[in-house]
Design goal:
The chain is mainly alpha-helical and 54 residues long. It is built from one helix and no strands.
Length: 54
């Protein structure tokens, strides 16, 4: 029975590690999306300035 408990804990730990890795990847993806949004906002602002000046 002790071996079964250890195996279940090992499986749980692997599952949790996988979840944590997935969260890290999602956080990186969200950060890249934020950077892209800032980049686009900056360019939209520049284009708006150019169009307003015409």
């Amino acid at each position: 029975m002790d071996i079964d408990l250890r195996e279940e804990l090992r499986k749980r730990d692997e599952l949790l590690a996988g979840y944590l890795k997935q969260i890290e990847i999602q956080e990186e993806f969200i950060q890249k999306q934020k950077e892209m949004i800032e980049y686009l906002e900056d360019h939209i602002s520049k284009i708006t300035d150019i169009v307003s000046g015409v």
